[in-house]
Specification:
The chain contains 17 helices and 18 strands. The protein is an alpha/beta fold and 528 residues long. The chain has a domain of 205 residues: Rossmann fold, CATH 3.40.50. It has a six-stranded mixed β-sheet with strand order 5-6-7-3-8-9, sandwiched between helices. Strands 14-15-16-12-17-18 form a six-stranded mixed β-sheet. It has a three-stranded antiparallel β-sheet with strand order 2-1-4, with helices on one face. A hairpin with a 2-residue loop joins strand 1 and strand 2. Helix 5 crosses helix 6, helix 7 packs parallel to helix 8 and helix 15 packs parallel to helix 16. It is globular, with a radius of gyration of 28 Å.
Length: 528
């Protein structure tokens, strides 16, 4: 159970929540919703104890499991995925001890060694170690982690696989309260379905932030809507919240218009009376006082969701062959993730990279962007090519550097031009001077996209560019990129985004096989 009273939260001197009070009781499944930058991630951090509130009280009872927006296992990279998941219940050290004694037993068959192993094995069994291993593997498989990867060290897993391991560890811990920030990011459709079922049946309480509307509708019983510093509670599923929200917005809009019309009518009347007799002027003063009181008490009409429209400049001219790779291979100390990947990308082409999680899609893009070295093979850019890279984990966005400074790294344009580019994506006002490390996940995505626009590139490497975006922003980014005539290499689990871009060819990983795009592949985009 968690209880908040009079909660206030500031982000970079900007108040995102004021005087919020709510309770999440045992068994509650709560969806926390709101536009990008509204403060959802900041609220979860405060509830988890990772950040301090500007004011108010947070009371927690029971155990807590927290999955941030970009979870990374906080353990030694040599640990296996299985041992890290088991650490959710403290079973990892016992499993390591048992493995150590078993290894010694192979060389020492003395009665003392046998007894020591037997005692440790019995203790592990009594503590639920063996059933825990089975449950850990079941959860990992449900989240899309292949069984042959569970016993590998974390160091050889891809970024997406490590995120699944961390989510699996928190789910396995069986905490009384789960705080989940965008848990479906990077999950394929089967894993999303499994997670929906898991959360629906979960015995504890859940607060989840997600732009995956199906997850919210299937799993929650209450909604907390955060906007303009206020937290409003709605009972029911996400669909019921949407219907109630539409009615409330319609009512508030109508009331705001009526109040404004009455304020204007009384103000005009008082102004006319003020110029008449002394008695009338005295009455006008009373009316002005009433108008000021009405202004202080009037409601604000809900903001309409602004359509995102990004104007990517026409790309500079390049040679016909934009990118050429030969025999690329990549590994991380274990088996190679992929080998002998060779392909060419021509001017104006849109190449979609598909493959199961762990197939090396992100690793390939990092190599092409110059962020990582291949184990074998090479690649070269064509004549006149300017490359822009959108990194899935926003590695290029650094704490301690302002949003505007990040933009200046891409362009020497005047500040008003850079601010206009940020404004196209909804990053307006004081956000330009804000530390980029304090941005929400959705705001970091928008900053990274604004940097691509400012860079005037003709080749874009896009690794899951719609993750963390709210639905209106996601649609706007898709429309803008669809109209851009440059060259793209794309990794995405978002079928609507892929459909909007109309890719010409597909590179299947890890085998490196090229084929022409077929609309039937949309059914498997979310799974690959």
């Amino acid at each position: 159970m968690i209880q908040a009273r009079g909660l206030a939260i500031d982000v970079a001197a900007r108040r995102v929540l004021s005087d919020a009070s709510f309770t999440v009781a045992a068994g509650d499944k709560v969806g926390l919703v709101g536009r990008n930058g509204a403060g959802k991630t900041s609220l979860l951090k405060v509830l988890a104890g990772d950040d301090d509130a500007a004011g108010g009280i947070v009371l927690r009872r029971g155990t807590l499991g927290y999955v941030p927006q970009n979870p990374r296992p906080r353990t030694e990279a040599a640990h296996t995925a299985l041992s890290h998941i088991l650490s959710g219940r403290g079973l990892d050290s016992a499993a390591a001890r048992l493995a150590e004694l078993h290894q010694k037993l192979e060389h020492d068959h003395s009665i003392a060694s046998i007894e020591k192993y037997s005692e440790a094995e019995e203790r592990y069994r009594m503590d639920g170690g063996y059933s825990g291993e089975s449950e850990s593997r079941r959860i990992a498989a449900g989240l899309g982690l292949r069984l042959d990867r569970v016993d590998l060290p974390l160091s050889v897993l891809s970024g997406g696989e490590r995120r699944r391991v961390e989510l699996a560890r928190v789910l396995f811990a069986d905490a009384d309260l789960l705080l989940l920030d965008e848990p479906t990011n990077h999950l394929d459709s089967d894993a999303k379905t499994w997670l929906m079922d898991f959360l629906r049946e979960y015995r504890g309480s859940v607060i989840v932030v997600s732009h995956d509307l199906a997850l919210l509708d299937a799993s929650i019983t209450r909604v907390l809507h955060l906007d303009s510093g206020k937290l409003i509670e709605y009972r029911g599923t996400y669909s019921q919240y949407q219907a109630a929200r539409r009615l409330e917005e319609k009512r508030l809009t109508s009331l705001a218009h009526r109040q404004q019309a009455e304020i204007q009518r009384l103000s005009l009347l008082a102004e006319v009376m003020r110029r008449q007799t002394a008695k009338r002027a005295k009455q006008a003063h009373s009316i002005f006082t009433r108008v000021e009181r009405m202004k202080a008490q009037r409601v604000t009409a809900p903001r309409r969701e602004r359509k995102v429209k990004i104007s990517f400049p026409d790309p500079p001219h390049s040679g016909r062959i934009v990118l050429h790779s030969t025999g690329l291979a990549k590994g991380y100390g274990g088996p190679l993730v992929f080998r002998d990947v060779s392909f060419e990308v021509e001017r104006h082409e849109r190449l979609l990279v598909m493959g199961l999680n762990g197939a090396g899609k992100t690793s390939l893009l990092r190599i092409l962007a110059g962020q990582s070295e291949p184990n074998a093979g090479s690649f070269r850019l064509g004549h006149g090519v300017s490359l822009g890279y959108y990194a899935q984990e926003h590695e290029g966005i650094r704490s301690g550097v302002t949003v505007l400074a990040h933009m200046r790294e891409q362009s020497d344009a005047e500040e008003r031009v850079l601010r206009a580019l940020l404004g196209m994506l909804g990053l307006t006002g004081d956000i330009a001077r804000q530390d980029a490390g304090t941005l929400s996940g959705g705001e970091k995505t928008k900053l990274a996209l604004a940097q691509l626009v400012a860079g005037r590139h003709n080749l874009l490497l896009l690794d899951e560019p719609t993750n963390n975006l709210d639905p209106p922003s996601r649609s706007g980014v898709a429309r803008s990129l669809a109209e851009w005539p440059g060259t793209m290499v794309i990794v995405s689990h978002d079928p609507e985004f892929v459909e909007a871009l109309h890719p010409g060819r597909v590179l299947f990983m890890p085998e490196g096989r090229l084929d022409y795009w077929d609309e039937d592949l949309l059914d498997v985009v979310s799974m690959a």
